Amino acid sequence: MEVINALGRRKTAVARVYLKAGNGSITINKRDYKEYFPTGILQFVVEQPLILTNNVGKYDIKVNLDGGGINGQAEALSLGISRALVEIDPEYRPTLKAKGLMRRDPRMVERKKPGQPKARKKFQFSKR
Asked: Hey, what domains does the chain have and what are their CATH numbers?
């Protein structure tokens, strides 16, 4: 089996995923994923596509993560892994889609507007 690559994005985070047959190691920016994502919740988000498709320990995953925060990076990685798994076997698609793992979350930070301190917040109004 050759290396399958896929892309996952969330907010400003980009995950380039390289998946190949192996023993189940997940390496993010040359570090183990449990070291990169210290909390159990983020580790579960990363593992979720593999757990749902019963592929834990079957593939080695090498990831280049860039941009965004820790949460956005974890969700970008989850989407990248899901896309790579569907490329291997299209039968996984309905399972992953039912859990919402095949959808790129479109929510982004709203830009700051001129004459305001933030995107929607206004400076205090003074009548006099």
From this structure: 4-98 (3.30.230.10)
